[in-house]
Specification:
The complex is a heterodimer. By secondary structure, chain A is mainly β. In chain A, 5% of the residues lie in helices and 56% in strands. Chain A starts with a strand and ends with a strand. Chain B is α+β, with helices and mostly antiparallel strands. Chain B is globular, with a radius of gyration of 20 Å. The chains are: A mainly beta, B alpha+beta. At the A-B interface, helix 1 and strand 5 of A face strand 1, strand 3, helix 2, helix 4 and strand 8 of B.
Chain lengths: 128, 193
């Protein structure tokens, strides 16, 4: 039986200018990845300061320096259209690697920028 | 089977009115160039009178940016009458791209920092704790679809910073240094295993 599921992976950005790399693994029952989306508990920091490299199955999807704002969707977007469309990409070995870089923004110029969370959502198809 | 990849070209802009000629090298295995995106990241801000700015330190410029209508307005300015007020977007510059193939100049785009009018016409936007901004209420980014041959060796480009007029008129001499970013999406043909 085919099911649509959405997976969420969180990373913590400890301070301004930090680069955080983490690898996550999807379940073996996931047969395709349809889309991805980035969110944060600090949307403004993710929008103005975030960039990342995303790798799926050791295949680079977005290179280093790809701005996070291009993978965000606000609440004005229908929930059915928020994800970045990736077709039905095979997950391969199921490994998702994200290297997120926070580039401090002079305009925000936050004193003691707090730690914040970045979440990567994947829209997947699961076969049971 | 076709696979998509992206090339990122970063152009640091440090002076008002700066003109940058650049090239984007297209890989050998590119079949078609299929999409374009643009973006910008702030680096720093400067005042038009550098000596005075240096003496004052960075805080006046930061305070200005926070108080200006382009970024952080006071709650009163943001919420009262905002629904029908148009705020000029921060226009940074424009880019043109030329292919060595028949398509010649195939892409032209303006680069803005953010959409300052995202709350325009939204009469429900009165919640001061959740006022519409690009990060929270922004629309999904879609690439500009282009279709040009990927056999071109390079793409020749020109980027011009357009802050000169705004620096004098609207922002009292504050100039933003930033990195303009060009994304070139291309498709490569892969062998099906």
């Amino acid at each position: 039986m085919i099911k649509a599921v959405r997976k969420r992976f969180d990373i913590e950005i400890p301070q301004a200018g930090a680069t955080v790399a983490e690898t996550f693994e999807l379940e073996k029952s996931i047969v395709a990845i349809k889309g991805l989306l980035l969110t944060s508990d600090r949307d403004d920091l993710l929008y103005y300061q975030g960039s990342q490299r995303i790798e799926i199955n050791k295949e680079e999807i977005f290179p280093e320096g790809y701005e996070s704002k291009l993978l965000m969707s606000g609440i004005n977007v229908s929930p059915n259209h928020r994800y970045y469309n990736m077709g039905e990409m095979s997950p391969g070995n199921g490994q998702i690697k994200i290297e997120y870089t926070d580039t401090p923004n002079a305009q925000l110029a936050l004193q003691n920028q707090p730690a914040y969370r970045v979440s990567l959502y994947l829209d997947c198809i699961m076969e049971e | 089977m076709f696979r998509e990849k992206v090339i990122i070209k970063k152009l640091p802009v440090t002076q008002a009115g700066q003109l940058i000629n650049f090239q984007v090298k297209i890989p050998r295995d590119a079949q078609h160039i299929i999409g374009m995106e643009v973006g910008a990241q702030y680096m720093n801000m400067q005042m038009a009178q550098p000596a005075a700015a240096k003496a004052a330190g960075p805080q006046p410029a930061i305070n200005y940016a926070r108080a200006s209508q382009y970024t952080y307005l006071s709650l009163e300015k943001r919420t009262s009458g905002r629904a029908v007020r148009i705020t000029p977007d921060l226009f940074l510059g424009d880019v043109r791209l030329q292919s060595c193939e028949d398509t010649n100049i195939f892409y032209a785009e303006d680069i803005y920092f953010a959409d300052e009018n995202i709350a325009f016409g939204d009469f429900t936007a009165r919640n001061r704790r959740f006022f519409p901004t690009s990060p929270t209420h922004g629309y999904k980014h879609e690439e500009c679809i282009v279709n040009t041959c990927g056999k071109t060796t390079v793409l020749k480009g020109i980027y011009r910073d357009r802050q000169t007029a705004q620096v004098q008129d609207l922002r009292q001499g504050v100039f933003f240094q930033y990195t303009a970013i060009i994304y070139v999406w291309y498709a490569i043909k892969t062998k099906v295993a």
